[in-house]
Amino acid sequence: MDLFASGPERLPVQDGELILWRAFALPLPSAELFARLQAETPWRAESILVFGRRHLQPRLTAWYGDAGYTYSGLALAPQPWTPLLQAVRASVEAATGLAFNSVLLNYYRDQRDSMGMHSDDEPELGPMPQIASLSLGATRSFVLRHKRSGQTLRLPLADGDLLLMAGPLQQHWQHGIHKATRALGPRLNLTFRLIR
Question: Per-residue pLDDT averaged across 90-113, rounded?
Fold first, then answer.
């Protein structure tokens, strides 16, 4: 499948690949998909290990798929795919031409929820993971920082945007979602991965 057939934009970035689909074609209207995922997902507040200390994550999460996943001292056992998540995965796979066997859902309840700077470089993702990140709800700034140069990119991700991180991006960049100072509505983020 031609990765660029549906009109995505390749973003200029050194040491990696970023491909963005604005207003990605979803299997349901984005507001309906957001409402269903928000209501039907068994959200969890997890604690992670950071610099030897346990901290509660400043967001809610859920892990679905065919394989477990471990990061920051947190081992996630997968919940089985729901028909709704399977439909979203099929849309993402059709657009990217890639296969995914797991998805991490993040629920940012408001501007106080965040995700610290990190790389998705766990061994089970392979040496050059391809991660498709779907945003629903409020627009938030996705921040990327180059590990060597310190170069920082800020990418506003809006409702229905799909971002593919690929190539050696995880080796050279960190990414995260910072807290915001102004009031923001809720946001859901689905990151599709292939666990090896």
Answer: 97
